[in-house]
Write a structure and sequence with these properties.
This protein has helices at residues 3-14, 17-23, 37-42, 44-48, 69-85, 98-110, 125-130, 138-142, 153-158, 181-186, 197-211, 223-232, 247-263, 305-311, 327-330, 348-360, 362-368, 378-385, 390-403, 418-433, 439-458; strands at 59-66, 89-96, 117-120, 160-161, 164-165, 168-173, 175-180, 238-239, 242-243, 297-301, 317-320, 334-341. It is α+β, with helices and mostly antiparallel strands and 459 residues long. A hairpin with a 2-residue loop joins strand 4 (160-161) and strand 5.
Length: 459
């Protein structure tokens, strides 16, 4: 399937009415690009080649990202290539794990020293944009420095907050349950797409009984799964400066976790005290030697499938959808990550040209290989797919053939102040896992404290 033909459909699934209203701009399902794309198209050759026009004189910049060792190596190699193509440009690439990354970025923003180019996430974009920390890229699109001619205009909308284009989508992805097929085969279990929660629980019980492997269900990173499960019940978690979810609705998630603990198929919380939560290399699916402390699956993202393959030491991995009471309501595609430029970048034009090269250059994507998600440039998406292994192509086929035909519009970006809700969700999950608080009491605390923190941010 050619990506030029399906890009509009994919982006239409990503950008729903709620997001468009939140961004305050209209959208099109064509691939005409953003405003000023005719100018951008005219300069496409120069802007995608990484030409030395970005390196008049001597320019240095800092570029930061989170991720895993695969992403780190690929991105560092791309930086080396860009520096070779642009004499005089020096890029200090800095890599962190997920939790460390956001702590460092918060510290840097408080000190007025954000990196020139930074990887940005959908859940944080509103907070950083509303604080005036991200450069508005609109003029660079208009003058062709940032070439959007091969993008769907909805991808520009994805990075637009209150009329300012502040983030370039680095790739599309979708929630993905990545699983150890060697274990499921040993258990005699066939994993199907679009499992309901009841079907998933039965699979977990069977695998534990037959193989001893337990299940990892986003411990410590629970917001995405909770939001996904609520979508299956027709509930959007955030809205109008408050939580839309009730304690009774939220308690069902905590009860799901408590049941998994008491029934024995969920990984026990003590395992997570010994590993870095969110690290691919230390995921219970690939790390450890005792099945009792390991998982047969991980609830992750489609773009991380390749990284799990690299970390899995020869294991055969499969990919499917997260479980939900109504998969079609729950599933969505989203901007995997963004690239943003600091509002106080030392040389903003040079920073924008580097971002343009990362998104639009074949040479850059010889190194990046769509690891951050399916490229938003339709020609680059086709180019990258043509170089991928059979296993890597599974990610493309999963997003386009499994998720998009059976999905709904993504929720709007999280509101400013959501981080306190996220912190409380995980804190209460830990207490539920240890039996220190009931699911209902945990849910009530999250709703009460969450509404208070969101109201404080809105005032």
């Amino acid at each position: 399937m050619k990506f030029k033909r399906v890009m509009a459909a994919a982006a239409s699934a990503v950008m729903g009415a709620g997001l468009l209203a939140g961004c305050g701009s209209s959208a099109s399902t064509t691939t005409s690009g953003a405003s000023g794309s005719s100018t951008a198209a005219a300069s496409a050759s120069a802007s995608t080649s990484g030409s030395s026009s970005s390196a008049s004189g001597s320019t240095s910049m800092t570029f930061t990202w989170w991720g895993n060792q695969t992403r780190n190596e690929q991105t560092q190699n791309a930086i080396t290539e860009y520096e070779a193509e642009n004499p005089g440009v020096t890029i200090d690439g800095q890599f962190s794990q997920w939790s460390d990354y956001w702590q460092k970025l918060a510290t840097n923003s408080a000190g007025g020293s954000l990196p020139d180019v930074m990887q940005m996430d959908y859940q944080y974009i509103t907070q950083y944009a509303n604080s005036g920390l991200l450069l508005d890229l609109s003029s660079y699109v208009s003058d062709g420095t940032l070439d959007s001619s091969k993008w769907d205009s909805n991808m520009v909308t994805a990075g637009t907050i209150d009329g300012k284009f502040v983030a370039v989508c680095a790739g599309m992805n979708a929630p993905a349950l990545i699983y150890n097929k060697d274990v499921t085969d040993a258990a005699g279990v066939t994993i199907k797409d679009n499992m309901t929660l009841d079907e998933f629980v039965q699979v977990c019980k069977t695998i534990k009984e037959k193989t001893g492997y337990r299940t990892d269900c986003a411990y410590g990173t629970s917001l995405g799964l909770i939001e996904y499960m609520l979508r299956g019940d027709g509930v959007q978690m955030f809205g109008d400066g408050k939580l839309n979810v009730t304690a009774d609705q939220l308690a069902k998630y905590y009860q799901f976790y408590a049941d998994g603990m008491s029934d024995g198929w969920m990984i026990q919380p003590g395992v997570y005290a010994e590993i870095s939560i969110g690290s691919v290399e230390q995921s219970p699916m690939v790390y450890g030697s005792d099945p009792d402390n390991m998982s047969w699956c991980t609830l992750s993202w489609s773009n991380q499938y390749v990284s799990y393959l690299n970390a899995a030491n020869g294991k055969t991995l499969g990919i499917t959808t997260w479980p939900s009471n109504d998969p079609a309501k729950s599933q969505y595609v989203k901007p995997g990550q963004f690239f943003s430029v600091s509002a106080n970048a030392k040389d903003p034009e040079a920073a924008v040209k580097f971002v343009n090269w990362l998104i639009n250059s074949e040479k850059a994507n010889d190194y990046l290989k769509g690891e951050r998600g399916i490229p938003i440039n339709s020609e680059i998406a086709d180019y990258v797919k043509g170089q991928l292994s059979e296993n890597e192509v599974k990610v493309y086929d999963f997003v386009y053939d499994v998720v998009i035909p059976n999905s709904s519009a993504i929720n709007p970006p999280y509101p400013d102040g959501y981080s306190e809700v996220d912190k409380n969700l995980n804190s209460m999950l830990e207490q539920v896992a240890y039996g220190a608080v009931t699911p209902q009491d945990a849910a009530q605390q999250v709703v009460t404290q969450g509404n208070a923190s969101l109201a404080a941010k809105a005032s």
